[in-house]
Amino acid sequence: MASDTRDRILDALERTLLDVGLTQVTLESVAAAAGVSKGGLLYHFPTKEAMLAALVRRLGTRSDEQLAEAVAGGTRVAEWYLAYPDDLGDAAEISLFRSMVAAMRSADGQHDEVQRAVVDVMRSWDDGLRAEFDDPVTAEIVRLVGDGIYLGALLGLPRPDPELHRAIIDRLLSRDDPR
């Protein structure tokens, strides 16, 4: 039951961040949106910063679960990381994408715990890429390209041509002669 309430609060926080942004997030507004009392919210999250950090950490957990599922299904870590969010197409990925938008809106540089949580989540993704490549430079290039793809999607920028996107992935993963 406590887990359900905690998730309901984090879902309400995510919706609030997506709808109106960080400046409008208050403990009261999130409690109301979650259908809990302010005291009930404070039981789970003693501060706004703790609530925001929990949202980011939940994003990391969901992301790790999706990555593990993709790898178990035969997808390379790098392929998953370089995929355009819409190409993954399932409800869990859309949920993860919305969580990422909300998490990025929470990372305003003024909340140390939130900033640490964002860094921890982003660094955990690096570990999988570094384990997949012998060359740390290639792993870092893949990370930077994947971050750029995701950032473009988060900002609503026009997506790259699908054939060009596929050629980029093939080149980065050495499946095509770059000459």
TrEMBL record:
Record-annotated DNA-binding residue ranges: 26-45
Signal peptide: none
Residue span(s) of domain HTH tetR-type: 3-63
Transmembrane segments: none
Keyword check for Cell wall biogenesis/degradation: no
Family matches, as Gene3D superfamilies: Tetracycline Repressor, domain 2
The entry's keywords: DNA-binding, Transcription, Transcription regulation
PANTHER family in UniProt: HTH-TYPE TRANSCRIPTIONAL REGULATOR BETI, HTH-TYPE TRANSCRIPTIONAL REGULATOR RUTR
Protein's name according to its UniProt entry: TetR/AcrR family transcriptional regulator
Record lineage: Bacteria, Bacillati, Actinomycetota, Actinomycetes, Mycobacteriales
